[in-house]
Amino acid sequence: MEYGGGGDDARDGTRWIVLVVRVPAEPSRHRVAVWRELRKTGALSLGQGVWAVPDVPLFADGIGRVLELTERAGGEAVSLAATGRGNQDGRRLRAMFTAARSADWAEFMADCGKFEAELAKEIRIAKFTLAELEEEEQSLERLRRWHRDLTARDVFGAPEAAEAGERLRVCVAACEDYAERVFTALHQVPEQRVPEEGKREPGEESGR
């Protein structure tokens, strides 16, 4: 089945995995671990302890980890294969899932803005060091991994995806520009002052 394109029949026939998860309240770390894994997987929250993801191979590993964490915590989890009862239900669920991805993209682009602002600040104060460059390159790699993960989870294609891709390209170009400035600064030969005629530098002895 092809998602994100085609006619109404392809969209309305989307299959979903619905997870019903119950984890003991204490210790709370187990509930937090399960919640984090669900969020990391990109599952859509439908209510207290009820989550859904499109039934595609991409989400299989994440669902497996959720089930494992739940069992380890002494909880219970049920996974159900489902479709909407009618076309409207399927479209509504797909829209909710895409809205969650739009929120993810908005968060990603906000971090791109922070990255660009950080580079601009380092250029403004002329902080051109290898240590700072390495730190900025690590931040850029984090954005790249995040972008790959979001692209994979964005099954139906949120409208913000294209803009997010462009923002990442801007970040890459900005980091390359900063790297060039760093290497230029590090390779620059310090200017040596030439003493004026008839004057001696401090400590210079006069010949006799």
3D architecture notes:
By secondary structure, the protein is an alpha+beta fold. It has six helices and four strands. The chain has helices spanning 8-12, 28-41, 60-72, 87-124, 130-153, 161-187; strands at residues 16-22, 44-47, 50-54, 76-82. Strands 2-3-1-4 form a four-stranded antiparallel sheet. A hairpin with a 2-residue loop joins β2 and β3 (50-54). The radius of gyration is 27 Å and the shape is elongated. The relative contact order is 0.12. The model is unreliable at 1-11 (pLDDT under 50).
Main beta sheet strand tally, sense and closure: 4 strands, antiparallel
Which value, in Å, is the CA radius of gyration? 27 Å
Average pLDDT level? 88
Decide which structural class fits the backbone: alpha+beta
* Overall number of strands: 4
User: Roughly what fraction of the amino acids lie in strands?
Assistant: 5-15%
Order of helices and strands: HEHEEHEHHH
Q: Which percent range fits the helix content?
A: 55-70%
Give me the number of helical elements. 6
How do the strands of the widest beta sheet line up side by side?
2-3-1-4
Describe the structure using short key phrases.
single chain; 208 residues; alpha+beta; 58% helix; 11% strand
In short:
With 208 residues, the protein is α+β, with helices and mostly antiparallel strands. Helix content is 58%, strand content 11%.
